[in-house]
């Protein structure tokens, strides 16, 4: 028998054909239905913001990597484009394009690369940038327009309005349902952020990610399930003040946050038990802010808060290594 030459190398030994670029392309594809819906309901400016967000994010990251970090071999992997697109979808169509670029710079330079780059950031860059812009430009970030329902329209053709969650907090559930219905809430014919209004199209995009095995299903299921459970309890107490469970699932940024933001691979727990705790915490904090906070929506803040707890969650939910004592 001839001598067999065995090659050894450090772990891990599992090989995959996947890459960061392939994963990010799948996320962008999954967000296309939401972009189409945002363009239809809020006009061409919504599409323009989406493109500006993606392009500017890639340019900022390219500058940081090639010039500041002097990595001449760096090639864009799509992660910055996903951040820029998600940030754009989290904005009102009333947001000026230059405000979006400020948010992109904050997301890529401060939230992502100041912590070491892809895989090292603690907080979701798009959500952290959204909160930064909300504090810095509150008027632009909280001005909402009625849907135009035209791919060729422009946001200035529309009238300003309040979001369903804001109407619920200020005027009650009966007023909300007098102005809209569950079908409008499901398909996006309501005021709100560019990419958050169409729950149905967001779910279709999420199903694509599930098919491609790109997401952690435990987190969105637990997150949305917790919201439905809490909303059901409070609805029995005071329907007029708290609103129905279906309303809370379809209104606001819950679907966008639960399906595309909370499932971020970098800023969410690694273990199944940890993902359950993460989704549970997001759901509880979201509803506490919606019911008792001064701001009508709590999705962004709840996910960022749970992002900060991920290291602790991972530490206390990691399985015991075989052969070692617990603790």
TrEMBL record:
Compartment annotation: Cell membrane
Residues bearing the modification FMN phosphoryl threonine: 163
Any matching Pfam family: NQR2_RnfD_RnfE
Cytoplasm recorded as keyword: no
Keywords in alphabetical order: Cell membrane, Electron transport, Flavoprotein, FMN, Membrane, Phosphoprotein, Translocase, Transmembrane, Transmembrane helix, Transport
E.C. no: 7.-.-.-
Gene Ontology BP, a term: transmembrane transport
A Gene Ontology cellular-component term: plasma membrane
InterPro entries: NqrB/RnfD, RnfD_bac
Membrane topology listed for this record: Multi-pass membrane protein
Transmembrane feature ranges: 23-42, 97-115, 127-145, 186-210, 217-236, 242-262, 274-293
Domain of life, source organism: Bacteria
Cofactors (names): FMN
Summary of subunit composition and partner proteins: The complex is composed of six subunits: RnfA, RnfB, RnfC, RnfD, RnfE and RnfG.
UniProt family annotation: Belongs to the NqrB/RnfD family.
Function: Part of a membrane-bound complex that couples electron transfer with translocation of ions across the membrane.
Protein name: Ion-translocating oxidoreductase complex subunit D
Source organism of the structure: Fervidobacterium islandicum
Gene (name only): rnfD
């Amino acid at each position: 028998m001839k001598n067999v030459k065995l090659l050894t190398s450090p772990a891990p030994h599992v090989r995959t054909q996947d890459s960061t670029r392939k994963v990010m392309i799948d996320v962008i594809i999954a967000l296309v239905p939401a972009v189409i819906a945002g363009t239809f309901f809020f006009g061409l400016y919504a599409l323009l913001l989406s493109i500006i967000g993606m392009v500017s994010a890639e340019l900022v990251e390219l500058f940081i990597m090639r010039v500041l970090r002097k990595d001449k071999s760096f090639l864009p992997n799509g992660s910055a484009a996903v951040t820029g697109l998600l940030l754009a979808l989290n904005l009102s169509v009333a947001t000026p394009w230059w405000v979006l670029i400020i948010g992109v710079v904050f997301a890529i330079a401060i939230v992502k690369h100041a912590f070491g780059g892809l895989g090292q950031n603690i907080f979701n860059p798009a959500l952290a940038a959204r909160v930064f812009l909300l504090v810095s430009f509150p008027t632009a970030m909280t001005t909402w327009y009625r849907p135009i329902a035209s791919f060729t329209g422009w946001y200035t053709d529309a009238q300003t309005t309040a979001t369903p969650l804001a109407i619920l907090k200020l005027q009650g559930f009966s007023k909300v349902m007098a102005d809209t219905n569950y079908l409008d809430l499901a398909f996006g014919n309501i005021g709100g952020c560019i990419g958050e209004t169409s729950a149905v199209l967001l779910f279709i995009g999420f199903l694509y990610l599930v098919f491609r095995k790109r997401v952690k299903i435990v987190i969105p299921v637990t997150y949305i399930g917790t919201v439905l459970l809490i909303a059901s309890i409070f609805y029995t107490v005071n329907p007029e003040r708290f609103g129905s469970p279906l309303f809370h699932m379809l209104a606001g940024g819950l679907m966008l946050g639960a399906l595309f933001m909370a499932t971020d691979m970098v800023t969410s727990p690694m273990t199944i038990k940890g993902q359950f705790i993460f989704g549970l915490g997001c759901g509880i904090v979201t509803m506490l802010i919606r019911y008792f906070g001064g701001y009508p929506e709590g999705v962004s803040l709840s996910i960022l808060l749970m992002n900060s707890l991920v290291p602790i969650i991972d530490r206390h939910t990691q399985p015991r290594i075989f052969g070692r004592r617990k603790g």
